[in-house]
Amino acid sequence: MYNSKNDRSHEMGILINCAKKGHYTNEDASRKLIKYISRAEGSSKAGKENVLCTGAYGAVDFLGEELTIQQFEDNQHCYHKAGKVSRYADHEIFSFPPNASRILKENPKILSELADEMAAVLSDGQYQVFYGIHTGAGADKDTSTLSDTEKCQDSNLHIHFAVNTVNFQTLNKRQETMAATRAHEKQLQRIVEMKLTGQ
Questions:
Q1: pTM of the complete model
Q2: Residue 5 belongs to some domain of the structure
């Protein structure tokens, strides 16, 4: 995929689209995905991985994930083409490579700003996005007294994104092709590069 010796964009991270055929097709898919990302009570991963912060774009998140879930679901209920939504959410993960993670570990306060900008890109100004920044630290390690910097150490830093597949302006469906995912990946890599280099 990244054949050119001059193309070093993959050094900023990679975007993985987890919405394979048959995934996220149940009506409660957005609920389960947002709870999974936030590690909220009721999630199969509740409390098992460190979540540095969560946020949303195109939806309210500061009152808790339940309101965000309700907003996703309300928007999906407005979609009437062919009777039901075929896929309720896209699950995308941006994973940082060691070099970028190392810099971000030293400056964890920029992560939330970085995630907000990435969510805006994935939203395309038309889709609701919920995200969670995960450190990937082990579930059996007590990190409750650690600072954000300490939580990031020795971890797989990544951001999960739940993207509502129903456009909140037109109520059309999101069509995320591989080409669109690669285009989004390049945009996200540019954002990371600008943040890390201070440009």
A1: 0.81
A2: no
